[in-house]
Model the fold of this input.
Amino acid sequence: MSAARLLVGAAALAAVALAGPVRAEDPSIRLTPPEIAALAKGGAGAGTSGVAGIKTTILYGDPTKSGPYTIEIRVPPHTRIAAHSHKDSRTAVVVSGVWFFGYGAKNLDPLVKELPPGSFYTEPAGVDHFAQTHDQPASVYIFGFGPTSTDYVEAADAPKP
Done:
């Protein structure tokens, strides 16, 4: 292969690498933890609880549009997320920290299950659920098929913009 072809190929790869997160249009994706850490972090986004302090990263797709998506949420210590549901069924994996997750119409301590890193859980469509962190933050990857929503059981519990 000529040096010119190698240079063109390397330039094309660099352009793809610098383009940012891969969206659903390009299903080929490989991200290391440092690459994920370098992605843009936002506040509460589509498919999240909207609670202040939670940082959201879209890893794949777009939760506001039809199609598969993956988001990461980073939740600070001592955070409580009130009972809510989503219109799409979702699955999730706890990546780091300890996540306390429960099902029901009210965030009650006796209903949560402690989920350490590597734990898996589901958020079935329309099923009320809630979560919290205690003394340490948690990072969770959530997988769904959008568009998604966040619908609080009690409207008063919904975070104010």
